[in-house]
Write a sequence for this structure.
């Protein structure tokens, strides 16, 4: 894991001191709210419906046990004893007091964390594959590149006031577990004909009001040219991006309006023009950063697979967890464990302080003290020996963290919605809770199935990418829910299609039942929901949903 | 009828303008005025020594029923009673 150097420590400590003084001046009346608001937002502090909300950065979703324990401490000391993991691999505390935020940021700085650039028109948290470094299907660990980009993007003097926020994702695996194509800028690590590692560059993805998938504008960029090419993209965006219209300010709108080919040509011209003066990314620096992400010293002694098989054979609940929550590891005898933060009936992504402490303890005992956050709002232990899996599951299950539902119907991505968020137009969490309760008993039969729910058009719940997406909107003072079908993230990324008129809150469960019924009846072989949807089209689903209306 | 609500500067809690420079966490203590007096109420709520205890003061529609004040919008009802998501969010520290 990357550790702060002296520069990083000084930088974050100075920011805490600056912010402490800004809060003091706000509370004394020296600063008005109009003056203070951009300052607090630069440090991740929003105002929500019931309280301030602090969104802190978890760079590329990587946590140590020490950091997670600190988050548990902050949850207990400064919040209501829990936090909410977000779809950008970050954490939000929803019950924060302004006067305590300097102390919280100081606590975060003590474990090499901060909340810088979790708001505002700047680079946001760089995200990546939660299985990075240990996935059997990756060509190289993407985390060093995510860290290098994080360093480049932090308070970059030329790009601190972009037309709008800017999200970057990096993936190195065959299976895109980072939803790269929904980002403003995406990077896939690729190997060229000469065997050299470089990047495929995509731009123009994003959800919200105008959902678009990122398009490839450069199939291969040499590693040394990473900064130069990123700067070329950002300069074109800075120059031509719309600053006059909030709804048209994201890079996706620029790419759409110019066309990907013209945008690519502009970037190429900018890159060629600035080539001589651009900073190259030296191999030595990549090597230096990569050394911080070296794999731990695994115990490579033989695993008692017979004992594990026996535990699976005699415990159906454990067998189900093994099937859904445990993934292949590139080191024999080890496994990647996803801890579901989707217990049926609870708030997706919420984690109590006690649960954070438990996960930190388990990571120390069984997983080299490392934890990852997945954008699906779950946690990952990336280094668990297979002969520790049964004991791990028992401890997780006893703490309410043993849900065996990864990738299934109750593993719902869900934004905070109108229960917390000042932007929301409808509630999303109660819909997720009801659907999970309703579908969990038969989710194995349904198979891999992604429901994604947003409480407003900004789409923090990724509803456009759900096999079934649900968007809550306000219609004359009533919450109604618009349903989209056929969306997908990852390799087969697709934007869902709106199926028809929105349904009332009390009708959502029945509506989803009908749609799943069509899928169950019409799917062929191992088809996923989006595959069936693309094959048979919307008509059978519309018929089932609206025929009686 | 309308009232003025916002969030407390220091801790972000939901508060209501009670008149005469006072703010209360209880909606039942809010000053509820006819629609044609609402703009004046909002102006009054934004007057006072700096810093004001409130941020983001706005007018919202409400009614008085059986002696209790009830906001009309679901959003404001959630601001009164808290998240509807279960017990985990229910208790303030």
């Amino acid at each position: 894991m990357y550790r702060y150097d002296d520069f990083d420590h000084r930088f974050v400590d100075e920011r805490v001191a600056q912010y402490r003084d800004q809060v003091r001046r706000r509370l004394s009346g020296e600063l008005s709210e109009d003056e203070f608001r951009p300052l607090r937002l630069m440090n991740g502090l929003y105002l929500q419906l019931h309280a301030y909300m602090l969104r802190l950065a978890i760079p590329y979703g990587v946590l140590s046990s020490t950091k997670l324990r600190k988050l548990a401490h902050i949850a207990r000391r400064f919040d209501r004893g829990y936090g909410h993991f977000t779809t950008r691999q970050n954490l939000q505390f929803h019950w924060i007091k302004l006067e305590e935020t300097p102390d919280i940021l100081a606590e975060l700085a003590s474990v090499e964390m901060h909340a810088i650039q979790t708001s505002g028109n700047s680079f946001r948290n760089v995200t990546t594959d939660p299985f990075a470094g240990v996935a059997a299907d990756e060509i190289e660990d993407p985390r060093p590149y995510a860290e290098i980009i994080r360093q480049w993007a932090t308070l970059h003097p030329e790009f601190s006031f972009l037309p709008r926020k800017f999200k970057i994702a990096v993936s190195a695996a065959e299976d895109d577990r980072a939803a790269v194509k929904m980002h403003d800028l995406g990077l896939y690590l690729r190997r060229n004909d000469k065997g050299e590692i470089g990047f495929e560059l995509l731009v123009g993805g994003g959800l919200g009001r105008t959902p678009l998938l990122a398009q490839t504008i450069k199939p291969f960029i040499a590693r040394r040219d990473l900064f130069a090419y990123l700067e070329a993209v950002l300069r074109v965006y800075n120059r031509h991006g719309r600053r006059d219209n909030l709804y048209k300010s994201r890079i996706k709108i620029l790419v759409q309006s110019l066309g990907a080919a013209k945008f690519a040509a502009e970037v190429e011209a900018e890159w060629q023009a600035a080539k001589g003066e651009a900073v190259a990314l030296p191999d030595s620096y990549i090597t230096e950063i990569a050394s911080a992400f070296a794999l731990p010293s695994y115990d490579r002694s033989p695993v008692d697979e017979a004992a594990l098989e026996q535990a699976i054979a005699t415990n159906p609940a454990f067998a189900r967890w093994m099937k859904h929550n445990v993934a292949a590891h590139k080191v024999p005898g080890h496994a990647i464990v996803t801890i579901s933060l989707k217990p049926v009936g609870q708030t997706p992504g919420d984690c109590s302080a006690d649960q954070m402490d438990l996960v930190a303890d388990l990571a120390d005992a069984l997983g080299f003290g490392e934890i990852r956050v997945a954008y699906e709002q779950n946690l990952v232990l990336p280094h668990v020996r297979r002969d520790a899996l049964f004991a791990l599951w028992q401890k997780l299950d006893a703490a309410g963290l043993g849900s065996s539902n990864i990738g299934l119907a109750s593993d719902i991505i869900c934004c905070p919605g109108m229960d917390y968020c000042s932007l929301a137009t409808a509630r999303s969490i109660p819909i997720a809770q009801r659907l999970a309760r309703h579908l969990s008993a038969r989710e194995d039969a349904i198979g891999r199935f992604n429901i994604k729910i947003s409480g407003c058009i900004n789409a923090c719940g990724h509803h456009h990418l759900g096999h079934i997406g649900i968007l809550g909107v306000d219609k004359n003072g009533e919450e109604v829910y618009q349903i989209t079908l056929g969306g997908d993230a990852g390799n087969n990324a697709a934007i869902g299609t709106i199926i028809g008129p929105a349904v009332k809150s009390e009708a959502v469960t029945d509506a989803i039942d009908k749609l799943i019924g069509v899928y169950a009846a019409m799917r062929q072989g191992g088809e996923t929901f989006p595959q069936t949807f693309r094959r048979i089209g919307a008509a059978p689903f519309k018929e089932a949903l609206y025929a009686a209306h | 009828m309308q009232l003025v609500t916002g969030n407390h500067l220091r801790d972000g809690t939901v508060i209501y303008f009670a008149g005469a420079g006072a703010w209360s966490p209880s909606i039942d203590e809010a000053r509820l005025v006819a629609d044609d007096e609402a703009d004046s109420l909002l102006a009054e709520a934004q007057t006072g020594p700096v810093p004001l205890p409130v941020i983001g003061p706005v007018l919202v529609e409400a009614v008085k029923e059986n002696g209790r004040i009830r906001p009309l919008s679901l959003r404001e009802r959630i601001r009164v009673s808290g998240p509807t998501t279960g017990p985990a969010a229910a208790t303030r520290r």
In short: The longest helix of chain B spans residues 38-45. The interface with chain A takes residues 7, 9-14, 49-51, 55-56, 72-75, 78-79, 82-86, 88-89, 91-93 of chain B (CB under 8 Å). Chain B has a mean pLDDT of 93. The longest strand of chain B covers residues 54-65.
